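Weekly puzzle thread! Below is a chain. First person to post its structure in token form gets bragging rights.
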Amino acid sequence: MKEFLKRKNIEISVKRYLIDALGAMAQGLFCSLLIGTIINTIGTQFGIGFLTVPVATVAGVDYTVGGLATAMSGPAMAVAIGYALQAPPLVLFSLITVGFASNALGGAGGPLAVLFVAIISAEIGKAVSKETKVDILVTPLVTIGVGIALSAWWAPALGKAASSVGTLIMWATTKQPFIMGILVSVIVGIALTLPISSAAICAALSLTGLAGGAAVAGCCAQMVGFAVMSFKENKWGGLVSQGIGTSMLQMPNIIKNPRIWISPILCSAITGPLATCLFKMEMNGAAVSSGMGTCGLVGQIGVYTGWVNDIAAGTKSAITAMDWIGLILICFVLPAVLCPLFNMVAVKLGWVKDGDMRLE
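Winning reply:
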């Protein structure tokens, strides 16, 4: 069995499934749901006609350019997962159908359903790939058959469970914004820097509202915090790669000296409750944006998109100066000020020294 799994490149491990696959799923979401949301927002805000008018009608439903991208989130996630699992072409292409089915049947918690169903379908598809003389028939039939069956069996329950957990977190954040602001900000921020996908987690849990705002705060504390703290060692290249790229670049250094992580975590524990209690910062755009922080400024674009959505829905009258002040302070100014201050204390205590955050 071990020889067979090795020959089929089937690696049953936490890294393969919860790091590689989850991270790829977030990229699939980014290239479909998130990009579609951004396109819709740009079209609406700048009055760009060809981005706001329907360009296709499918089964009586009109789709804009962004709407088409958003509608393909399930297939995009599944194919991304298959790519991460190094699936052969016939398996990879068959996952398009699997992703569409599992995301549709999973409802609000569709991304979690896609993760589970796509992984199992891909691995089973890999197992039968090129084992028969009619591979072009067998591999797609098995991959799609397993995927559709699991989607019908598991996706509704998985989607409901993920949605329920996300709803519970959001409800708890509205009831206890201070405590939950700290918890959500710290946990999602840590997930962002770890080699797992905070964006995929937020998407799977449909984390929006105040909880989504706290998640954005935690992610920004990590990214901007590490970027500014390590400026002396990494200069402008490090500032951009971490501040607009990812704080995950610091993981090798964190493994060497975990104490360099203290400052961003402390910062997120402060900015999280400030976001929920003082500025009432909500993420009512795409849930995946809650776990993106300042990566390509997606978190901030998501918050802005949420404001626009709320105004369109009549739940918000206008974008206020306080909204902008809160967004700028929480996402940029406070992490850039607090993290270096906390790091100075850590340096004086001998916990951190020059070079500890240097990127290779």
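Puzzle host: Confirmed. Bonus trivia for everyone else. Residues 176-348 form one domain.
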